From TrEMBL:
GO cellular component, one term: cytosol
Classification of source organism: Bacteria, Pseudomonadati, Pseudomonadota, Alphaproteobacteria, Acetobacterales
Cell compartment(s), UniProt: Cytoplasm
Motif ('KMSKS' region): 628-632
Binding positions (ATP): K631
UniProt KW ATP-binding keyword: yes
GO MF: aminoacyl-tRNA deacylase activity; ATP binding; leucine-tRNA ligase activity
Domain Leucyl-tRNA synthetase editing: 229-420
Name used for this protein in its record: Leucine--tRNA ligase
Record PROSITE patterns: AA_TRNA_LIGASE_I (PS00178)
Amino acid sequence: MTADDTLTHYDFRNVESHWQEEWEKAGVFTVPDIPPAGKPKYYVLEMFPYPSGQLHMGHVRNYALGDVIARYKRARGFSVLHPMGWDAFGLPAENAARERGVHPKEWTLANIAAMRETLQRLGFSLNWDREIATCLPDYYGKQQKLFLDFLKAGLVDRRESWVNWDPVDHTVLANEQVVDGKGWRSGALIEKKKLSQWFLRITKFAPDLLDGLKTLKRWPDRVRVMQERWIGRSEGARLRFSLAQPPHGFDENLDSVEVFTTRPETLFGMSFLAIAPDHPLAAKVAARNTEAAAFVAECRRMGTSVEAVETAEKRGLDTGLRVSHPFLPDATFPVWIANFVLMDYGTGALFGCPSGDQRDLDFARKYDLPVKAVVLPAGEDAASFGITKKAWTGEGTMINSGFLDGETCEAARKEAIARLEGLGIGSGVVNWRLRDWGVSRQRYWGCPIPVIHCESCGAVPVPDDQLPVVLPEDVTFDRPGNPLDHHPTWKHVSCPSCGKPALRETDTFDTFVDSSWYFARFTAPHADTPTVRAAADGWLAVDQYIGGIEHAILHLLYARFFTRAMRETGHLDVTEPFAGLFTQGMVNHESYKDSDGNWLYPEEVERGSSGATHRGTGNAVTVGRVEKMSKSKRNTVAPSAIIDRFGADTARWFVLSDSPPERDMEWTEAGVAGAGRFVQRLFRIVRSVVADCTADAALPDDISTAGDTLRRATHRTIAAVTEALEGFAVNVAVARLHELTSALADAERSAKEAGVAFARREAARTLSLLVAPMMPHLAEELLAALEPGQSLAAERSWPEADPALLAVTQVHLAVQIMGKLRGTIEAEPDEDPAAVLARAEAEPNVARLLEGQRIVKRIHVPNRIVNFVVAK
RNA sequence: GCGAGCUUGGCGGAAUGGUAGACGCACGAGACUUAAAAUCUCGAGUCCUAAAAGGACGUGCGGGUUCGAGUCCCGCAGCUCGCACCA
């Protein structure tokens, strides 16, 4: 490379690592555990990654966006906490162990090292001293402490629950791992099995989790709506139906069935009672009736398959049992086991009112059960109104309903509840869809649940002084099931309470537990306690949380629950963990297939004007849909390869350009090359400013038009970029920076005019500072060239726009006739309306078209528009 | 089925009810060069029309409000996402 090249070519390879070292040396991104007084704090957090082995473009986009916010806020004078860590427990590590014989720990730590390196090459302003990995005892030991505190506070339960059991792998599967009733790995028919499991009592906070949503003003509406529905509050009544004439030999303790309903006023329209296949009463029936037993077993099998739910036909089986009606002492109704009744919701039983509920109607039609209309819609006649194929679920007037007749639904609802309460068989209740959170997993690579099971003392918490319960490393993966359970010695301990031989819990926590409090741990990542109050309370809530929409429900809800539980157990004193949430879109890419239908990697494909061909063979390639980058479609682009070719700033600039961050973007070769050209262009332009304009170039009193124009462009850009960044419109900020860059380049032509040298220096310096959040390395390089030996760009304040230069000196006014643009005129800002109107009317084209027309109205919106309304 | 969102040039997209298409990508023309790359300049919604002036049409479709609608209101279609028998 010649000396000349160093002035015209930006050598990102050396420059980027150099500035990363400078930042590190200066400790620019380091903040103390206790937020410093006298400066406002700002906590920026991106969802931490699972260490799968390679950073992908989705991460780059996520973290680039977060880094823009972090660097921008830092420049605005905030003390910014911006940490990074690893969601490091999880099944892929165990799969790697089984498939390739690598130990999960080794695999995970190697992946972390590789991904950390890529992250660091991208130059994110992260406080690396705070790095945590959830798979290290330092982290999960504190999690065990939290769990024990929750246990003491009554926020934990142990109870039996149904799980999907894979009989081949000897493991429990999540619902999404069960495909068509079969295990996703083993292909074995999945069984429903009851296991004793640990539950976190999230339902205890259901009302508060719902109410809290209202305070989350800076969350996307749709995420709030999703959570609201997930929590699922509904008002209604619970009531007991007594079993009429239980058959001989039936359990005498089971003399009634409790149901939940939101429509107690429709009780008179009842024609059957339905219970879930998993309902205890169904089990009783199945025990004496083989037909029922077969039906229940079948429902249980079907229940897990997604397909089954979608195509679900309503099916049921009459148990032969009957219940009495609370308001009609002489009437009894059949009890059915029905496949559409969920044991998980309400009481697992319902009364069917076919006229008022479509499902009940479908069921009634199928099994020929009576349908009685009880709600008369407005405008219908009671004598002729009937329900045929469509249930009426709306409001109306009660009919055929005894003492409720003539009332509105709402009044009748209240009255029905009052009557049930009077009879002592029911009451108004609020029901929640939210279930307690089962956290037990029969896995090795997770946080051990710190409990010891003793035959005499039951489940005994591991004493604090024995924490952390460390995962043993000498485990084997040569047979199915949980390696912790197979370990020869690990689980054999003595009971902390009575000292007798006892067994360790071999289940580990759901990995969602790990990510439910990491944001709090980041505030004091090396503390001996899970949190340090002053640190957690000082930094939390996270001011801006950024991540994918896929975590809209579970992760965010669990984190909100954990925060409340931690508050209740004294670990912190905030209620909502994330004050602002931003969900960014995905990174998509074209997909390619060869003639044999095999997916091809982008680097195997040559795109020409006549279509796409294979680089090696020259064969035609089919260009498929633009879709989410995924390994299976091979439409991925590796960030490290992009950094090698174009540098970190180019990669960052490209993912931030064009598409609004909340929307999906398409990664294209041309796009990233274009970003790379811009990096070089900006570098050249600023270098020419350094060469042309001396650092002491002064602002003359009589600045030339060219100089003034550039200065105004500079200050307008400051305002526009600031506004765009405040609103997350990074793509708009990028556009404004392109414009200023072009304006600066144009000014070179007027280099000799008065004040242009000053204006060019000002523009170049401003531009460097404004691009810094997106392209921090280039910003440092530019600023160092402009102002050698001064402070780092990363430490500088955000530029301020001079209001005097934001004021418009001349306005370009549109002139319309009947709302159609017919010409433009120039005007002084806030010029006398009469003069403006006169000039508008005289504009040649306007005058021509107004000829012979009668103007009935002249509209003048100062500094914006003139519109003439003419008579027709 | 329920809910949310989206729909603007060849493409990504911009636009407090006030000149639609900023900015970028791709494309075309030109300059520089022996040549290419790089770079720079210019052009470009569609049509009347090859160009200019001018005009017509134009932000998924149909209505409405308004002097004026991509933007607000009503209805419809298409696409995407989420939840999905929640009693």
